Amino acid sequence: MFQKLVSHNDDIRRLVEKGYAVDSDGGYLIVRDIPYLDAEGKLQLGAIVAKLVFTDEDHVTQDDHQVFFAGSHPHGTDGKPIPNLGGGPTTLALGEASNDVVVQRRFLNKPKAAGKFQDFFEKIESYVAIIAGPAMERHGVTPYTFRAAKEGGAGSVFKFHDTLTSRAEITDLSAKFKDDVVAVIGLGGTGAYLLDFLVKTPIKEIRAFDLDPFHVHNAFRSPGRLDPAEFGKSKAAVYQGRYDNFRTGLSATAKIIDAACPDDVNGVTFAFVCVDKGPSRAGIFDLLLSKGIPFIDVGMGLSRKHGSLNGMLRATYYSAEDGRKVRDKGLAELSATADDLYRTNIQIAELNAMNAALAIIRFKQLRGFYSADDPYYHLLFEIGDFKIVGESNVDAD
């Protein structure tokens, strides 16, 4: 990955050729082995970290004139802190492969003449001159160690650099999903949007299941582009094809999941149930509860009254510990009803997307990505009054 970056960006190549210990980690450029003087005048080694903005799959540009620094504030030969390095203390989480780089501060030193750096070569050279100059003068050292890249970005599930995470400085939070194996059972409207959200989350593996074919009505509540050649294919094949160029670790299978499919969920750490028939849901619940797999079940009930649509969206969490208690509360339909044949089953794309959003937000709360003031296991959104209500006490009647 890093060598590809070097081959397509002359400024990065020039840094490597000059001898800097250049590496990359996702959306960051890292330059290790930067000598500097600490407050006692002793020689230390730090690292400069700069955000990479990918303009396409191979080419990068700068975010701004700022950099991060792994080290204490550098000092001059006079023993005073080097001036004109604005910013101050901060932290920044990098990937596991770069855990030797512990960012402690942010520096801001804008070029006076141009107001911005021409490229990464000029940017790194400028900051090295300021930070390392006194150490180079006193100790005769240089930052040109020609140390090879560690390929910190390797191992990502994404086929593109995840610059969204690096730009937002939330790499440590995104890492909370790295060991998850998530199943999406049902790829109708809500399931399709859930899959879209999950694909863009750094989950190790996603398993999606749906036997049904992709028809015209599915296109109106499905995220992403439409290729008319998709009609008639299984939903599993359609979504596998849509996301193959985005990430690895996705397998979409055209089959029904029920209590007789234990092997399909072996190793699954979390599941989303997105089916609209009670008996099907009951079989899936039995399977997941028997395997101790926590899951969220989603549901939607819309009806037309007085000339407009109203109804509710539901997201219900069944934990490994209390899943059976939640099931026994009857919050989700687990059997067929007499009017199933006549049910309109209205679904609208934006409500499917919101139903999926409720479920994915709750999942990410459970992983510590989002904060959660109340441990809700049951969420309802009422369209008419635009309110969300929740239940958090599983043992309450």
List the helices and strands and how they pair.
Elements: H1 2-8, H2 10-18, E1 21-25, E2 28-37, E3 43-54, E4 60-62, E5 66-70, E6 86-89, E7 105-108, H3 120-139, H4 163-168, H5 171-174, E8 181-185, H6 189-199, E9 205-209, H7 216-219, H8 235-243, E10 250-253, E11 270-273, H9 278-291, E12 295-305, E13 308-318, H10 323-328, H11 349-366, E14 378-382, E15 387-391
Parallel strand pairs: 8-9, 8-11, 9-10, 11-12
Antiparallel strand pairs: 1-2, 2-3, 3-4, 3-5, 5-7, 6-7, 12-13, 13-14, 14-15
Helix pairs in contact: 1-2, 2-3, 6-11
How would you sum up this structure, described in words?
The protein is about 25% helix and about 25% strand. It is α+β, with helices and mostly antiparallel strands. The chain folds into two domains: about 1-160, no CATH class; about 180-390, NAD(P)-binding Rossmann-like Domain (Rossmann fold, 3-Layer(aba) Sandwich). The protein has an eight-stranded mixed sheet, sandwiched between helices. β1 (about 20-25) and β2 (about 30-35) form a beta hairpin. α1 packs across α2 (about 10-20), α2 (about 10-20) runs parallel beside α3 (about 120-140) and α6 (about 190-200) packs across α11. It starts with a helix and ends in a 6-residue tail after the last strand. The mean pLDDT is about 90.
